[in-house]
Amino acid sequence: MKSVVSLQKQFTATGLVMLLCLAGTTATGDSYISPETIEGTHRIEAEGLIQLVNRNENQIIIDSRISSDRKLGYIPGSISLPDTDTNCESLARLIPEKSDPVVFYCNGPKCRRSDIAVVIAVDCGYTSIYWFRGGIEAWRANNYPIAK
Amino acid sequence: MNTRRRIKPGLSDKISLTVIAIGVLGLILVYYTSIYYRNIAYEHYQRTIQILAAIEIEEIVDDLKSDAADLAQALEQQPGFLQHIADKNTQALVQQLDNQFYQYFVTANIIDLSKLYVFDVDFEHIAASSEGINTGTSTQLICPAFSQNANSRRGADRLQLVSGTCNHDERPQFVLISSLGGLKPIGYIQIVADLTSKLQHLELALGMPVQFQLKNGEISYQSDEWAEVLGDKNHLPVEYMLGTYNNEDSVRIFFMADMTQFNQRVMSHRNWVMALATMVVAATVILILYILQGSTITPLSRIHKILDRLSQYGVTQQKETRVLFAQLLENIITLQKNRKQRFATMILDLDNFEAVNQQLGHDAGTELLQHVGDRLAATLRGSDIVSWTGTDSPGHKLMPVGTKTEYRATLARLGGDEFGVLLPTVETEQQANSVARRIINSLDSDYKLNNQQVTLKCCIGISIYPDHGQEAEELIRNADKAMFKARQSAGKYCIYCAKQL
Question: Residue B274: CB partners within 8 Å, gap ≥ 6?
Answer without folding.
Answer: B27, B30, B31
